[in-house]
């Protein structure tokens, strides 16, 4: 799929992140594949999936474009979203339409800056589309300078130097959208339809919602906490 | 479990309704059982389940009290939530802690008023706890007069003579809570944590949330619609 065509397809729409992990009550037995099918049923314009095999399965099952990531933890590095070229290679092989990587100012397991991976991917896969998961405005601006196609606000609140909000990082989204129109994918802590809507109003290209749709145990927990609040 | 003990256990808490139906992308393969486990993980105080076998399985898997219903459609009647004594018998047999039935002013498949089932259940199972799913204040008051233990606001908006709201029926919940304290279980169209919280503030004994937690395709659809709104 050409870049322009993909952008037309996802513009203004909902991308559903379908991820679950060992130890979660919803993990295993193809449940995330059902979540991907639910997203398609609902009219989502794309998916975000973790691990090459899930990227492949979800693409085949739904026909939707998939943002591929591969979360891998390495000792000595806080960077875990697609941290090295090995993960990128496998995600490309699996057919990811967009590759999302950690593009923060932190050190990757390779000892280089996480954002250094952008230029390496563009050198190896000139046609690859890169979503740069960032935690601050500055990281987003840097990602675009390096050649990333999209900025994801995914990591705001998840680095120790970024702003902490209970909900989405609207100030970061707003400023990035103003300076990099058409390149900002809002992601991170978007739990309500009003929050998602606000991201589009601020100028986001599209919105990624994960847990609020695909992790019912966390949604139930938010309800439990709301009822317990004094 | 004695009535007082059950009430203590569910008071102020979240009950998660775990139901799916043929044709839904999330149906089958034990997914609703995973939803029940997710509810328990999150600290829910109970479950609401459709069909005797699901009541039994979810009770065994979670140890949580279960409100049992059995949706059955019969030609010529609009009443489908546990419409006859046959469904009640099977739900009792399955170990339902509370039996929920349609307690509206409509005609059951038997040709009698739906609410007539309350007295019959109490005659056959004197210790059974009955949640009367109602669509109006008057139906709720009538249910209590007939001996129902709890009023559910489940059916408000689902009979052709009841109020239609986009969200929960707060006026009905408020009035019932004032006149029947400790007996109102808020249910129906509760999609946000604020709405759930408001039900408790109005005096509801507890709150049932279903789709917003256990039907991800409907949640995704609400997000898609919010983004498409002009």
Task: Give your account of this protein's structure.
2 copies of one chain form a homodimer. The first copy, chain A, is an alpha/beta fold and 230 residues long. Chain A has one domain: Aldolase class I (TIM Barrel), CATH 3.20.20. Helix content of chain A is 41%, strand content 15%. The first copy, chain A, has helices at residues 3-10, 31-42, 52-62, 85-93, 116-124, 137-146, 170-179, 193-201, 211-214, 216-228; strands spanning 14-18, 46-50, 66-69, 98-102, 130-133, 150-152, 184-187, 206-209. An 8-stranded parallel barrel of chain A has the order 1-2-3-4-5-6-7-8, surrounded by 7 helices. In chain A, β5 (130-133), α6 (137-146) and β6 form a beta-alpha-beta unit. The mean pLDDT of chain A is 96. At the A-B interface, α2, α8, α9 and α10 of A face α2, α8, α9 and α10 of B.
The strand count of chain A comes to: 8
State the helical fraction of chain A: 40-55%
For the largest interface, the chains and their residue counts are: A-B, 44 and 44 residues
Terminal Cα separation of chain A, in Å?
51 Å
Instruction: Give the radius of gyration of chain A.
Output: 17 Å
By secondary-structure content and strand pairing, the structural class of chain A works out as alpha/beta
Mean pLDDT of chain A: 96
Strand content of chain A: 5-15%
Which oligomerization state do the chains in this entry correspond to?
A: homodimer
Main beta sheet of chain A: 8 strands, parallel, barrel
């Amino acid at each position: 799929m050409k870049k322009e065509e993909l952008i037309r397809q996802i513009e203004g729409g909902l991308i559903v992140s379908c991820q679950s992990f060992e130890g979660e009550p919803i993990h295993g037995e193809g449940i995330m594949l059902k979540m991907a099918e639910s997203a398609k049923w609902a009219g989502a314009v794309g998916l975000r999936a973790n691990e090459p095999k899930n990227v492949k399965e979800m693409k085949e099952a739904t026909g939707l474009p998939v943002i591929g990531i591969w979360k891998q933890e390495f000792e000595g590095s806080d960077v875990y979203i697609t941290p090295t070229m090995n993960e990128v290679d496998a995600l490309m092989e699996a057919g990811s339409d967009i590759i999302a990587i950690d593009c923060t100012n932190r050190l990757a397991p390779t000892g280089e800056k996480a954002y250094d991976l952008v230029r390496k991917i563009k050198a190896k896969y000139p046609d690859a589309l890169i979503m740069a998961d960032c935690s601050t405005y500055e990281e987003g601006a840097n990602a675009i300078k390096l050649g990333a196609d999209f900025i994801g606000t995914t990591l705001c609140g998840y680095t120790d130097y970024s702003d902490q909000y209970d909900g989405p990082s609207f100030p970061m989204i707003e400023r990035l959208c103003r300076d990099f129109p058409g390149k900002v994918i809002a992601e991170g802590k978007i739990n309500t339809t009003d929050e998602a809507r606000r991201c589009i109003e601020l100028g986001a290209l599209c919105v990624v919602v994960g847990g609020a749709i695909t992790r019912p145990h966390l949604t139930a927990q938010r309800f439990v906490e709301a009822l317990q609040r004094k």
